Amino acid sequence: MTELVHTRADLAKARATLTGTVGVVMTMGALHSGHETLLRAARERADHVLVTVFVNPLQFGPNEDFDRYPRTLEADLEVCRRAGADLVFAPSVAEMYPDGQPRVRLDPGPLGGELEGASRPGFFHGVLTVVLKLLQLTQPDLAFFGEKDYQQLTLVRRMARDLDVPVEVVGVPTVREPDGLALSSRNRYLSEPERAAALSLSAALRAGARAADEGLDTTAVLTAAHTAFDAGTPGARLDYLVLTDPELEPGPLSGPARLVIAAWVGATRLIDNAAIRLAPRP
Ligand SMILES: Nc1ncnc2c1ncn2[C@@H]1O[C@H](COP(=O)(O)OP(=O)(O)OP(=O)(O)O)[C@@H](O)[C@H]1O
Ligand SMILES: CC(C)(CO)[C@@H](O)C(=O)[O-]
Ligand code: BAL
User: Fold this and answer.
1) CB burial class (10 A; 0-12, 13-18, 19+) of residue 45?
2) What is the distance between the alpha carbons of residues 173 and 18, in angstroms, rounded to a whole number?
3) Nearest Cα to Cα of residue 116 among 108, 105, 124, 104
4) Which ligand is nearest to the CA of 56?
5) Record-annotated residues binding (R)-pantoate (predicted)?
6) What lines the ligand 3 site, CB under 6 Å?
């Protein structure tokens, strides 16, 4: 049975009945098969699965889609039931932030201002603040995050390490449509032509990975990725396409690396990334 709670008091009561290990999957709702894969990964690793559904105003900029973000709790509960979740915590904004906007927020450090953070100022302050609050409220042994939001996963891992948060952060590989598009709640904003244009992101990643597999250097890998992006159905506008270290740290690249991309498709901003294996530097 999947229990739904909306308040911290009810969460605390329900959490106290869960014996054994607890895995948490934090979401903003509008659940899709990507989320379901996270839930199933949690089901495999932990005795109990706790899902949070909260559209966190703190991580949205003033001109972003907080108001129109899809809110589909009934359908989300069905996904949670199907995946065998024990407990769903779906608080209101007032329940999470009873004193209004918190004055104390987590500082994500230098990486928080790069890539997603450069385009979405304050985004990772908002994400890490709510993630830490949700960890405190749910007290999990394990927390599952998707690789689709690779910088978020990296920063949550770093926060747990740097601040000695007693949780194991587990990354789950990106779930894709058969044509390569990474599943994302924001895909439901896309019109048919926009969806075709959105394939430019995964096409760029595949081309970059192929070039790396052929032993090409970092410049050629990036060129291949850019060329594939530009060759896609018109309509996607690149924000960034960056080849970086797997920890998103600066420095020379050799061996394992990560290709990360963000682009606007109409009014929708999409992100994606892929593991790349570069030839070792001579
Ligand atoms: N395609 C996917 N594969 C694996 N994990 C995913 C996928 N999409 C989302 N997740 C993960 O699910 C968790 C909750 O994400 P969220 O609710 O923001 O969904 P989303 O699809 O990323 O939404 P949005 O479109 O708003 O970015 C995050 O850890 C996220 O990385
Ligand atoms: C981790 C998260 C639930 C925090 O609001 C959100 O950023 C998301 O859904 O990836
Ligand atoms: N999917 C990560 C949360 C966000 O984009 O707001």
Assistant:
1) middle
2) 27
3) 124
4) 2
5) 59, 152
6) 59, 149, 152
Interface pTM, i.e. ipTM: 0.98
164 is in an annotated binding site: no
- Whole-model pTM above 0.95? yes
Q: Calculate mean pLDDT across residues 216-231.
A: 97
- Say which residue the tokens 């959490």 belong to: 15
Q: Which one of 172, 199, 224 terminates a domain? A: 172
**Structural domain boundaries, residue 232:** 185-274
Question: Are residues 208 and 134 part of one domain?
Answer: no
- The minimum-distance atom of ligand 2 relative to the CA of 156 is 1
Ligand 3 atom closest to 56 (CA): 6
Q: Is 200 annotated as a binding residue?
A: no
Q: What is the pLDDT of residue 250?
A: 83
CB atoms within 10 A of CB 234: 11
Alpha helix positions (H), the chain:
8-16, 33-45, 73-82, 93-96, 116-119, 123-138, 150-162, 192-213, 218-231
